[in-house]
UniProtKB/TrEMBL annotation:
Pfam families: HAMP, HATPase_c, His_kinase. This is HAMP domain-containing protein. Signal peptide: none annotated. The keyword Transmembrane helix applies. It is found in: Cell membrane. InterPro entries: Bact_2-comp_sensor_kinase, HAMP_dom, HATPase_C_sf, HATPase_dom, Sig_transdc_His_kin_internal. The chain crosses the membrane at residues 34-54, 296-318. It is a multi-pass membrane protein. Keywords: ATP-binding, Cell membrane, Kinase, Membrane, Nucleotide-binding, Phosphoprotein, Transferase, Transmembrane, Transmembrane helix, Two-component regulatory system. It comes from Paenibacillus phytohabitans. Residues 320-372 form the HAMP domain.
């Protein structure tokens, strides 16, 4: 069945340029009228009101924004200093607890002799540390690192019991402060059982008050709420970006709005703390300044909408008579574009638009006539060509089979002859008795099995054929008589002195059905392969003189592969068809590619079943 969608040649033919005609009278295009109308009613009022509004508010809004930003940054800086002082006092607390100092002195050595942490030590230290972290949700954990590698923490389960230098790259910065408070930028904390990234901490070295010897390090890990809680108490409006940086401009905190956009212009306000060494910076996009002028913008928008509605009303009243016929003609053109060539436009005026409508109707009528004349002719020609190609297959197979029957009759093998005649009758009923062009894969396989039984009686052990086609392909619809010519081609051209192995398989490649016939016969020479490819893909016909003597005369040979390939191309187009593969050491693989089609046939069962019912 051939399907056609649209008429591409004629679709291209009607795409021709149109040119405006000239007129002696003064002509003002409709487009120009609309442009003038919109400029007067919309553009001028919008520009006047917008200019006054922005000149009045831009300078004042920017000035007030700068003042407010400086106040916010200063307040945040003060709060931040207070917060750091609290953490400073918290890290000094171990110096005032004698039990804790005794435990640190016991583990002050750098060797491994005193590395064992007793239960009593762990209980006392963890209890003391937990009291420091009580009711402080912004603290992730408080940890005490001993010199001999032990760790005490309020998080007993999620913190390791031991540490080494590979877990403490941050210790160098703490030791450089020589007992002072160190604010550590985001870093990796490998001493947790599950390593954490981006931890912000404060830490200091714990020293012996009398000898100034290092006893350990106390470290406070902060959560993201640490700095965020300080900022949120001041920045209630939530506008702009806020950043807190430490030494060497290392980023400690960035607000929830993220990092600044390099393409955006910002108003900047900052404050630096000499006590903490931290810098607080506020960035406010200049685009936010326009928000203060929203009230005037809304007034401008109302005026613009009123002017726009007035312009549309005037345009509709003045051009309704002109637009309606054009819109009607346009709708008919869309119908024609979809292939409905019976559509005709109604002529409602006697002016140029009416003349254009009459010309459109005449043009569509002529196109409809040409489509019926040319495309129906081409369709019939292609259907005739398909039937002619298919009809070339039937005599070719029939002549070869009758020659084999004649040979068996001369030999006097009546039982074998009866089997051949019975199989031949089934084959003839399949090829001649039913004229459908599409069958199931199961039908084709049964046909091939019957054909191989006939050839097996003639060739004996010289032919060994196997069929490996999964039952899931049985009801896939394929063109009729596409497998038997491939089997016959193998027997005619690949048979040598040795036993011929032949395999018929089916597979799926890229949602296409691929049927393959593989043999280990004589193969194909390079010259013959080139000739076959020219016949298949270049549409080069073979000379008609290439024949051999048959039972009733001279039969043309070598057209089986070409006919099957041309049938698939006529039915499905590219890239479907037949391909040859002779890269193996022996034999050739012939493959057919065609689309997967599970469309139900007119009759419920396979062709073999239908034959038996008749």
């Amino acid at each position: 069945m051939l399907c056609w969608s649209g008429y591409p040649e004629f679709g291209e033919a009607v795409r021709m340029p149109f040119r405006k005609g000239s007129n002696q009278s003064i002509y003002v295009p409709l487009r120009t009228k609309f442009i003038v109308l919109f400029c007067l009613l919309i553009t001028v009022p919008f520009l006047v009101i917008g200019t006054i509004s922005y000149k009045k508010y831009t300078a004042g809004v920017e000035r007030s924004t700068v003042e407010l930003s400086n106040q916010v940054v200063s307040q945040i800086n003060i709060n931040l200093e207070h917060y750091i002082k609290e953490l400073d006092r918290l890290t000094l607390t171990p110096l005032y607890d004698e039990d804790m100092m005794q435990i640190l002195r016991k583990h002050s050595g750098s060797g491994s002799a005193n590395t064992y942490l007793t239960t009593d030590e762990t209980l006392k230290m963890n209890l003391f540390i937990s009291s420091l972290a009580f009711d402080r949700g912004e603290i992730e954990s408080i940890l005490v690192f001993t010199n001999d590698g032990g760790i005490f923490s309020n998080l007993d389960q999620s913190v390791r019991k031991r540490w080494d230098r590979s877990m403490a790259d941050w210790m160098e910065a703490v030791e450089q402060e020589d007992g002072g408070l160190a604010i550590l930028p985001p870093h990796a904390a490998a001493y947790y059982t599950e390593a954490k990234q981006g931890i912000i901490s404060v830490a200091r070295v714990i020293r012996e008050p009398y000898t100034n010897d290092m006893l350990g390090i106390v470290k406070v890990d902060l959560t993201a709420r640490g700095f965020g809680s300080i900022v949120s108490t001041v920045r209630s409006s939530g506008s702009g970006l806020l950043q807190i940086t430490g030494k060497n401009q290392v980023m400690l905190y960035s607000g929830p709005d993220g990092l600044p956009d390099s393409s955006e212009s910002y108003i900047t306000a900052s404050a630096h703390s000499s006590y903490t060494g931290l810098k607080v910076t506020s960035l406010i996009p200049r685009t936010q300044l326009r928000e203060d002028a929203r009230e005037l913008t809304n007034s401008t928008l109302i005026v613009s909408i009123v002017a726009l509605m007035a312009a549309y009303a005037a345009a509709i009243l003045l051009s309704n008579r002109l637009i309606k016929p054009i819109a009607h003609l346009q709708s008919k053109m869309r119908q024609v574009k979809r292939g409905l060539f019976l559509e005709r436009a109604t002529v409602t005026t006697s002016d140029e638009i009416g003349q254009l409508t009459e010309g459109f109707n005449t043009m569509i009528g002529e196109i409809d006539r040409l489509v019926k004349e040319v495309y129906e002719t081409r369709l019939k020609e292609r259907e005739a060509e398909l039937l002619a190609l298919q009809s070339q297959i039937h005599p070719h197979f029939l002549y070869n089979t009758l020659e084999m029957v004649n040979m068996l009759a001369l030999q006097g093998n009546t039982r074998e002859l009866s089997g051949v005649v019975t199989s031949l009758g089934k084959l003839l009923r399949y090829t001649v008795g039913h004229q459908e062009q599409m069958v199931y894969v199961l039908d084709e396989v049964r046909f091939v099995e019957a054909y191989l039984r006939i050839q097996g009686m003639r060739l004996g052990d010289k032919l060994q054929a196997v069929i490996h086609i999964d039952s899931s392909f049985d009801y896939c619809v394929v063109p009729k008589l596409i497998l038997q010519p491939l089997i016959e081609n193998v027997i005619e051209h690949a048979m040598g002195q040795d036993t011929l192995q032949l395999a018929l398989t089916a597979s799926v490649e890229e949602e296409d059905l691929v049927l393959s016939v593989k043999d280990d016969g004589l193969g194909i020479t390079g010259e013959r392969m080139q000739e076959l490819e020219e016949q298949l893909y270049v549409n080069k016909s073979r000379p008609a003189t290439e024949t051999e003597q048959g039972g009733f005369g001279r039969i043309q040979k070598g057209f089986a592969l070409r006919n099957v390939h041309q049938r698939l191309r006529l039915l499905y187009g590219e890239p479907y068809g037949l391909t040859l593969d002779h890269t193996a050491e022996r034999g050739v693989t012939v493959s057919l590619r065609l689309p997967m089609n599970w469309e139900a046939m007119n009759n419920a069962g396979p062709a073999g079943d239908r034959q038996e019912e008749t």
